[in-house]
Amino acid sequence: MATPLEQLISMRNEAITRLWEHKYTTATRISVGAATCEHAAGSKAVWELLAHIKAGGGLDGVHIGQVGCVGRCDMEPMVEVVRAREIPAKYVKVTPEKMRRIIEEHIYGGKVIEEWTLNE
Amino acid sequence: MSKKNHKHRVVAVCLGPSCRKKGGQALFDNLKVEIQRAHLSESVEVVETGCRGLCARGPVAHVYPDNITYCRLTPNDATRIVQGHLVSGHPMEDKVSHADRIANRSFRLFGDARFFGKQLRLTLRNCGVIDPENIDEYLAVRGYEALAKSLTGMKPEEVIQAMRDSGLRGRGGGGFPTGVKWNFAATQKADTKYIICNADEGDPGAFMDRSAIEGDPHTILEGMAIGGYAIGAHQGYIYIRAEYPLAVKRLEIALEQARAHNLIGKDILGSGFDFDIEVRLGAGAFVCGEETALIHSIEGERGTPRPRPPYPSVEGLWGKPTVINNVETWANVPVIILDGPEWFASIGTADSKGTKVFAVAGKVRNTGLVEVPMGMTLREIVYDVAGGVEGGRSLKAIQTGGPSGGCIPAQYLDTPVDYESLKGIGSIMGSGGLIVMDETTCMVDVAKYFLEFTMNESCGKCTPCREGTKRMYEILERITSGRGEEHDIELLEELGETVKFASLCGLGQTAPNPILSTIRHFRDEYVAHTRQKRCPAGVCTQLITYEINDACIGCGACARKCPVKCISGETRKLHTIDQSKCIKCGECFAACRFDAVTRS
Questions:
Q1: Cα–chain-centroid distance for residue B142?
Q2: CB-based contacts of B177: which residues, under 8 Å, 6+ apart?
């Protein structure tokens, strides 16, 4: 009988394998802030836009997910974009309009919109 | 175990100049060979990275997604990393960099933004990082490993000893040593014992618990299960307010997933230990954050406190020994078990170990949630982490501990944040509210604001609190409306001390703190309100008058802004304010571009 720790380790390895298949191997990942504070600041609209694009067949090969808040109340809603071999970019005060431009310029164009990222 | 279970890891070896010189290249080459030999080439990637800033401890390597940093490696360690860690899943403990494990991760995720650079996120380590609704993400960052470790190789007494060695103290505000509390409950002879998580966060402007639960609910469950194992409890309750619907939802999802993985429930991970958790909703009464009132509320009784002793660890929920800790305390438990009590005790000051989460609000540039090591000064928190006072104004005071805490004036900014230091200057650590006030804040008004809150939230069971807060509020009301007398200040002090001394529970015992601390540090403002009937900060509306002086050019901007139309005058001529109609809103003061409207 495996010890609890051994069981946990194999459970973790399975979890990592699952995550790897669905998320980590995706070249681009978008994480939208999703806590009460983020929702109040308007992150739901950003999430719905992404889900809508995804449902319509867009954002192919892009993983969209949600995270809790990192504590930057004054900068919410926050959206993180991680692309392979790039430093993660945290966009602040994101609106659906801004999100569209981030998709155009950063996700597809490969160019970070510096002035919208967290810098302090 | 099959090889399939060990897919997909990245080993990042630093090949910066320093690490390369110390043997980093040979390590890199050896790793590649070893991985090939273990037939892991398809699932493990070895990559080189630039300098990670740990040159003194090089060569270093980082394993993703476990987020384990190894330091002081030699080329021969390649075999141990591959065979021990990647094949068997046991990290090479003696070379794991404990000091930088979590700090590294913050850097990777947040860059070197100043806001994060000075923080040390232990309890918030996963907030904003993982998907809180997917247990896989928590498992991937060593989630539930602390629970498994406790169940595998530690006796309950050893878990309690680890808590004592760590020096962890209750984060709800009281600061009672957690290990001692657990030991009380563990040594009680009883057929049933309980664990409670106090998530009844009620301080105005505080949102530490909400954010922690919404961002990483599994940590709380794991901490509680470890606590249950340590004291011999099989049932836990999370008491949370119904006004946090998202946090409740995430807790329910997390519980369901944890049960499905046999991490909560019967015979956890085959260890024979049973532990289940139930979420209980509170209706949002502030007094229910007090432990005995909270217990009454869970029992279905009216949420009012009772005298202690007996303490809940002896006689708690349904008369059984109960350990009750708040959210942040529980979130610290897995960290201590996982990274060791010695490491935890190395953070902080002599009597306050670890970190503290603060909800920084008020007149500050970057409002938000921060977690800093104990012993950091208030100055560092306000200026380095939170970006300083808004609009470049000067800082007047900091209020910690919410309605139970006190105001700390600017001259104490270099006080280190720990339980004893804050107590020494008339405030408390509290659960983590931190409100920054600038020169435009009236301290009497602040005291009145907090007192109005505690007065409304007093449960009414004991007279000193029920009547005392009401009377103190009336005096403050009198002072701020210009009807105060100078002896009112002494009366407030006397009444405050009495309420503090005679009240039944923490609510009443701490309610006078905002008044007593503002009188202690800002007595001159109280004197100005009572003797000169003047509010120095210009906040108390009934004590200020707006007038128009000769600089007026008669542009009419103020008259157009006035909501009660009490400003009159011909165009290009001096305007006047009808004092009998003026509501002192300050719109004219803000509208005038010629400094012709004065406030006194």
A1: 23
A2: B164, B167, B168, B169, B170
Q: How confident is the model at residue B95 (pLDDT cuts 50, 70, 90)?
A: confident
Question: What domains does chain A contain, in order, with CATH numbers?
Answer: 27-116 (3.40.30.10)
- Nearest CA-CA distance, residue A109 and chain B, Å: 22
B12 touches chain A (CB under 8 A): no
Q: What is the 3-state secondary structure (H, E, C) of A40-84?
A: HHCHHHHHHHHHHHHHCCCCCCEEEEEECCCCCHHHCCCEEEEEC
CB within 8 Å of B108: residues ≥ 6 apart:
A88
Buried b (16+ CB within 10 A) or exposed e, A58-72: ebeebbbbbbbbbbb
- Contact criterion met (CB below 8 Å) for B429 and B417: yes
Report the alpha-carbon distance of residue A63 to residue A19 in Å, rounded. 11
The predicted-structure confidence for A31-60, as pLDDT tens digits, reads as follows 999 999 999 999 999 999 999 999 998 888
CATH number of B127-344: 3.40.50.11540
**Tokens of residue A86, six digits:** 């790039």
Which CATH code fits B6-97?
3.40.30.10
Across the interface, do B211 and A1 touch by the CB < 8 Å criterion?
no
Are B110 and A118 within 8 A, CB to CB? Answer: yes
CA angle, residues B470, B472, B476, in degrees to nearest 5 = 115
H helices, E strands: number in chain A = 4, 4
Give residue A120's pLDDT: 65
CB-based contact B246 A36, cutoff 8 Å: yes
ipTM above 0.85, yes or no: yes
Q: Kindly list the domain boundaries of chain B, sorted by start residue.
A: 6-97, 127-344, 355-438, 443-530, 545-599
Two tokens at B458? 């007093």
Query: Which residue is associated with the tokens 């590294």?
Result: B104
CATH fold, domain B443-530, is de novo design (two linked rop proteins) (1.20.1440)
Q: Report helix, strand or coil for B382.
A: helix
Q: Alpha-carbon distance B410 to B26, whole Å?
A: 55
Give the span between the Cα atoms of B276 and B258, in whole angstroms: 10
